[in-house]
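Researcher: First entry.
Model:
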Amino acid sequence: FAAALLLSACASKAPVVKPDRPVGTTSEVLPPSGEPAVAAKDPATQFEESLALLKSKKFKEARVGFESLAKQHPEFSGPLTNLAILDAKANTREAAITNFNRAINANPRNAIAYNWLGVLYRESKNYPRAEQSYLQSLQINAENPAVVLNLAILYDLYLKRPVDALARYQEYQRMTNSRELKVTAWIKALEASQPPPAPSAAPGAPTPVAPKT
């Protein structure tokens, strides 16, 4: 069960930032968690039960389970990751950032947590930290197209680095073997905005020689 606890199974599909609808926010606000912690039980069973509650959108009950697990087993990254996701969905951004960082301390190779941190830092307008988080996620899992797209949008809309954005959009298209209309349109717009390449010297053209002193 350790593998399941070390990584958040419920978040296998990392969020993709869309220019018209920021990810990491939702209209759903979690009610305050006032219930007592659940009785101690097998960690694997408790994790699976909490995960099932989360998938069923029983957020309050899921939080109780994950909080209990995180308290009993702070060395596991999965419960902390899921707590952070609940925080992010409840629009408690600072709590989410804290819990994602705790999850990374428990497992430095938690690529999901790094991707979510990129989203949250981007929402906080901390664009350098967002870029760093996305790049760290890709260092762990270079084949995650969602993170590549997140990074491309960060470069395009927020850091105003069109050359880097274009490269990442193209990488995303190659990775997904698709031609999504939105991404294709963004690529064409960036390509059209680039200055034309400087003309190269014609073959056989004379090369200036520095004067002898």
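Researcher: Second entry.
Model:
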Amino acid sequence: MPKTKEQCLLIKEKRRKDILKISLYQFAFKGYKAVKVDDITKAAKTSHGLFYHYFKDTEDLFHSLMEENVLPYIHNIVFPTINEDKPAVEILHTLFDKVMNDIGSNDTDKACMLFLLLNLHLQKEDIPKPRKISQDDSKHRKLYGDLKELIERGQKEGSIIDYDSSEITVTILSMINGLAFNRVNLGYEKFICPKGQMLTEMLKKKGE
């Protein structure tokens, strides 16, 4: 029996989502510049023709992945938490809890999205700028800057250790990046995920 128009659309959308899912892991572990169309088609077990049916090139694929998957996830989980109007140490605790819960969950894609995003922040690779910026995108600053300001606010409040805020920020992001990497590589069953409270305690002044 021939497929209906709706069934054909669902199949096409699934194929596109499958390519995006494959690209998430390719970009995360190989880096933006190293990923080629061949890498994607081989990993997705599809043809070049099908790839170009959905995407112009790897840059178009990268933008689509960031716009449709990675940035919405980060904006919904990370940035709203960082910008809450609460004491800095409480915000950090909530943020660490959310991030550790996602890394430690059985949804490997969440850990991989965090790993990819933090690679973009921690490395100086020549990443293409966003092709479109929504109002919400334009209002928020980069993750590093937001987190650094939160650390500095906590230091002024007297709750966060008095080390260089840049060093603390890089250390936090590197720790989360490493945990996300280990989660993806070890798998859900073998990975031991720390509690958010432990990360918070590492930053708190003694007696707080």
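Model: Note on the second entry: The CA atoms of residues 96 and 196 lie 4 Å apart.
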